[in-house]
Amino acid sequence: MKKVYLFKVALKHRKRLWRRIEVRSDQTLGDFDNIIRDAFNHDTWDHLSEFFRERWSQGGFGEIYPDGRGNGAKKRIERLGLSEGDKFGYVYDFGDEIHHVLTLEKIMEPERGVKYPRVISKNKPRYRYCEMCEEQGKKTIAKWICMECPDEGSEMFLCEDCMDEHDGHYAEEIVY
Ligand SMILES: [Zn+2]
Ligand SMILES: [Zn+2]
């Protein structure tokens, strides 16, 4: 019988940022990886990721490549032997090591007509506003943070339009 697993996925070092994600028992860690990348704006073309039991240094379930291949991708969720309340880990990018804490909150029956996996809720966003727009008296939600601008202790937040004009600097998409 297929089940649905409801996970809370939170960034370990920015716990305020979380997503609730439902995955079906017969789906794989590759499917789960894919939706986590998407939900946290992790890029889907550059970095490896891996799920692991307690400590990543003690070995994980196998690496997953951005294209969904890798020896950790094929394992089915139901094969992990999880019960409600269990926690495990996920690391994205073996260089920067962005750690996530996953909690299995509930095991449920699948709903008819629902496409899994899916994100069902997320933290309340605390929006940043575009600095360039703000100078002109406009309030626009920022989408990017410039990694090359920060000076005098302030951070440079930019909306999509202002980012287009903000040439040549490396910026990262803000996760809300
Ligand atoms: Zn702007
Ligand atoms: Zn800049």
Q: In words, what does this structure look like?
A:
This protein has 176 residues and is mainly β. The chain has two domains: 4-122, MM3350-like (Structural Genomics Hypothetical 15.5 Kd Protein In mrcA-pckA Intergenic Region, Chain A), CATH 3.10.290.30; 131-173, no CATH class. It is built from three helices and ten strands; from the N terminus they run ββαβββββαββαβ. Strands 4-3-5-6-1-2-7 form a seven-stranded antiparallel sheet, covered by helices on one side. β3 (49-52) and β4 form a beta hairpin. It is elongated and about 60 Å long. One zinc ion is lined by residues 130, 132-133, 140, 158-159, 161-162.
Name the quaternary structure. Answer: single chain
Name given to the CATH architecture of the largest domain? Roll
The CATH topology of the largest domain, please? Answer: Structural Genomics Hypothetical 15.5 Kd Protein In mrcA-pckA Intergenic Region, Chain A
Number of domains: 2
Question: What is the total tally of β strands?
Answer: 10
Feature tags:
seven-stranded antiparallel beta sheet, 2 domains, Structural Genomics Hypothetical 15.5 Kd Protein In mrcA-pckA Intergenic Region, Chain A, single chain, 34% strand, 10 strands, 176 residues, mainly beta, binds zinc ion, elongated, three-stranded antiparallel beta sheet
Record the SSE blueprint.
Blueprint: E1 4-11, E2 14-24, H1 29-39, E3 49-52, E4 60-64, E5 87-92, E6 98-108, E7 118-122, H2 131-135, E8 144-146, E9 156-158, H3 160-165, E10 171-173
Antiparallel strand pairs: 1-2, 1-6, 2-7, 3-4, 3-5, 5-6, 8-9, 8-10
Bound molecules: zinc ion (2 copies).
